[in-house]
Structures are given as C-alpha cells and as structure tokens.
C-alpha cells in the first residue's frame, strides 16, 4: 500500500496523575490505516495509559488525539470508532458464547436477524463456529480469548485496541495465538494497536513498534530495524539480548572517534553523530563467533573461559569471562542430536566479531 493514510494521530500527548506522576510524557506518533502497531516497554512505561487514552477511558492532560479524522476531545468511549480487548478477556460468565459476542450489537439496537448474522461471521473469523451455545466455563483460556476478540470485532471498529491480550496464556498457546492475531488482522483489514511488555510478541506480530520508557517514546521502527539498528542504549538492551561495553571518547577527527572501551582497549571507529561521554559499543550474542583456536579474522578478538551456560534445547547461551575482565555472552546453536554438552564450565574459548556487527550507541 503506497502512502497509507494515518488513522490515528497522537500529538504532544501527556498524562499526569497528581503533581508528581507523569505517565505519558509529550508523545507524538501516527498509526497507518490497516497497520498492526505495537506499544512495547517495561511495566510502568506508560503504554497502557496511552492505550486507555485512545479508548477514551482516560483523558490526556495535554495534547490531541485524532482517530479516523475526528478529534477525540470530549468523545465518550462508546462513541469512538475503536473497540478494546482487555487483558483478562472480560467475557460475561452468565451468557453463552453467542450472547457474549452479540451483546454490543443488542444494546445498540441492531435488529435480531442482523445481530445473528454478524455473530456467526465474527465467530467464523476467530474459528469458533459451533461454540455459540457453550458457556465461558466450558471453554479453555485460548477459546475465551477468541470470544473476547469476536465480541470486539462484531461491531466492526476502525481500530482494535489490545491490552496485553495473550499474557494469561501458556507459552505454546500464546505463540499459536500470535499467529492467529496476525492472520485475523490481515483478513479483516482493521488497524490493530497492541500493548505488550513481551519483545518477542511485538517483533513477531507488528508492522511497526514504538518502544516506550518512562512515559516517552524512544524509537519507532519496523521490527528488523528496531532489532538491528536500535537508536539508544535503552532500546538496544530492552530488545533481545545485547553485550554492552562502556566507552569514553578520547578524540574526534574527520568523522572518526577514538574510544577507550571497557575490556576492549582503544579503538578508532567511523561515526557521523555527535558522541558524548555516555557512549557504548554493543554486539548481539548471535553475532559473536566462538573458536577453540585463535581466530584468523575479526575486528575484536578476546580469549576467555566459560563461566556459565544455559541450555535451551535449540541453542545454548554461553557466558565467557575474558582475560580483559569483561563478560561476553554468545549463542551456540545445537545442530547435533546429542545429550553430551558441547562446552563445559572452565573451557577456554576465543570470542570474536566483525566491526559491521557492532553498534555505536551515543545515548
């Protein structure tokens, strides 16, 4: 889709609670029509408050919200072109699945025949045909989540807001529902905005992700760009795993930085941005190579011993204590079918990586 229009525009929105608590701090962003957009961050970063402002359950202290071309100032939640799926599903325990899904249509006066038709369509979307007569107590957690989704979709909102919708599910079901949500969003074409603290959930589902910290948006980017090119130390450390090495700038000349890096020594690296004392070098664990013998190539080469390792089935995470005093984490894929550990604590290894796999972080 070329130049899709923005269906949500958030402009300089802040939310204060009392004198000292700033939950959302001057946030501006746009969400495109038909996009799967994620608000990602740790607990207390303001992402759920921002979602509640979009839904109309909270009013911004400052700034403006425009949804589908309409300013939302003073617009009640039930008058907004959005619907929300809550973390705890919030299905009515005393109603059948069919009556749960059709509740919003009945209370707004939609004729009975039209309601039945739309309920059937909504249940088919979430693959719950044949469950209309069941009670919520007869459903699994994943099925109750699907009912909540059907109930939100049946009103055909322009935007669906999802507040940690998969957090109560077990790991395997959560992964299956991630794929289901992506399929569902593509099939209905509705804009989805999801709040999550789970980086893998956001990376696997969203077209774009806004990473929040302390009420502010630190970076907005597609998943691959966010992972490979984080713009600051917080994003680099929050998204995935990262080796961070503190550095101080000892010289700048012709677009090159001279850095004194903790555990890595002095380096001269090309860099276009202004650097400060709060500089760090970073490399992802999967970019780190492991060798028993001194490597013949690599921008950085360090010798060390395995201090700890954690086995995860498909890969092993190694933590190598180097001779220079820094600990480097690396991922080792478990290619061979064996129960014998490839490495043991105390094994001597070389770690190395290329310059192109390293990030220079100046914030």
Short description:
The chain is α+β, with helices and mostly antiparallel strands and 363 residues long. It has eight helices and 20 strands.
Feature tags:
about 375 residues, alpha+beta, Rossmann fold, OB fold (Dihydrolipoamide Acetyltransferase, E2P), 2 domains, 6-stranded mixed sheet, 5-stranded antiparallel sheet, globular
Layout of helices and strands:
Elements: E1 6-17, E2 21-32, E3 36-40, H1 47-55, E4 62-67, E5 70-71, E6 82-85, H2 97-107, H3 112-125, H4 141-153, E7 159-163, H5 171-188, E8 191-196, H6 199-205, E9 208-213, E10 216-221, H7 223-228, H8 233-238, E11 243-253, E12 256-261, E13 265-270, E14 279-283, E15 289-291, E16 300-311, E17 315-322, E18 327-333, E19 348-353, E20 358-361
CATH architecture of the largest domain: 3-Layer(aba) Sandwich
Number of beta strands: 20
Strand order of the largest sheet: 6-7-8-3-9-10
From the alpha-carbon coordinates, what is the Rg to the nearest angstrom?
A: 25 Å
Average pLDDT taken over every residue: 89
Strand content: 35-45%
Alpha carbon gap, first and last residue: 34 Å
Give the total of domains.
2
CATH homology superfamily of the largest domain: P-loop containing nucleotide triphosphate hydrolases
* Low-pLDDT sequence parts: none
Global structural class = alpha+beta
Please, what is the oligomeric state?
single chain
Q: How would you explain this protein's 3D organization?
A:
This protein is of the alpha+beta class and 363 residues long. It has 2 domains: 6-236, Rossmann fold; 241-361, Beta Barrel (OB fold (Dihydrolipoamide Acetyltransferase, E2P)). The chain has 8 helices and 20 strands. It has helices at residues 47-55, 97-107, 112-125, 141-153, 171-188, 199-205, 223-228, 233-238, and strands spanning 6-17, 21-32, 36-40, 62-67, 70-71, 82-85, 159-163, 191-196, 208-213, 216-221, 243-253, 256-261, 265-270, 279-283, 289-291, 300-311, 315-322, 327-333, 348-353, 358-361. The chain has a 6-stranded mixed beta sheet with strand order 6-7-8-3-9-10, with helices on both faces. A 5-stranded antiparallel beta sheet has the order 13-12-11-14-20. A 5-stranded antiparallel beta sheet has the order 15-19-16-17-18, with no helix packed on it. The longest helix is centred in the middle third of the chain and has 18 residues, at 171-188. It is globular, with a radius of gyration of 25 Å. The model has no long low-confidence stretch (mean pLDDT 89).
């Amino acid at each position: 889709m070329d130049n899709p229009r923005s269906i949500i525009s958030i402009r300089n929105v802040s939310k204060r609670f009392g004198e000292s608590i700033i939950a959302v701090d001057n946030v501006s962003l746009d969400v495109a029509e038909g996009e799967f957009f994620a608000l990602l961050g740790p607990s207390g970063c303001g992402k759920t408050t921002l979602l509640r402002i979009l839904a109309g359950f909270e009013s911004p202290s400052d700034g403006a919200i425009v949804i589908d071309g309409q300013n939302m100032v003073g617009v009640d939640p039930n008058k907004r072109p959005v619907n929300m799926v809550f973390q705890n599903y919030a299905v009515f325990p005393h109603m059948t699945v069919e009556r749960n899904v059709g509740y919003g249509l009945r209370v707004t006066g939609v004729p009975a025949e039209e309601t039945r038709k739309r309920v059937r369509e909504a249940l088919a979307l979430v693959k719950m045909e044949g469950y209309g007569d069941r009670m919520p107590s007869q459903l699994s957690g994943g099925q109750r989540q699907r009912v909540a989704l059907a109930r939100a979709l049946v009103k055909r909102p322009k935007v669906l807001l999802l507040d940690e919708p998969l957090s109560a599910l077990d790991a395997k079901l959560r992964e299956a529902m991630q794929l289901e949500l992506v399929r569902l969003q593509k099939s209905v074409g509705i804009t989805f905005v999801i709040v999550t603290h789970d980086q893998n959930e956001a990376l696997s589902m969203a077209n774009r992700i806004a990473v929040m910290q302390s009420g502010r948006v630190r970076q907005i980017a597609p998943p691959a760009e966010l992972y490979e090119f984080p713009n600051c130390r917080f994003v680099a450390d929050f998204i995935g795993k990262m080796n961070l090495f503190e550095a101080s700038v000892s010289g700048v000349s012709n677009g090159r930085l001279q850095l004194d890096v903790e555990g890595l020594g002095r380096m001269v690296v090309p860099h276009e941005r202004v650097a400060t004392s709060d500089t760090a070098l970073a490399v992802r664990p999967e970019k780190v190579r492991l060798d028993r013998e001194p490597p013949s190539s690599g921008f950085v080469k360090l010798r060390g011993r395995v201090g700890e390792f954690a086995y995860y089935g498909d890969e092993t995470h190694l933590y190598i204590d180097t001779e220079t005093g820094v600990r480097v984490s690396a991922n080792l894929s478990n290619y061979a079918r064996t129960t014998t550990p490839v490495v043991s604590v105390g094994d001597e290894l070389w770690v190395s990586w290329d310059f192109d796999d390293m990030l220079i972080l100046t914030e």
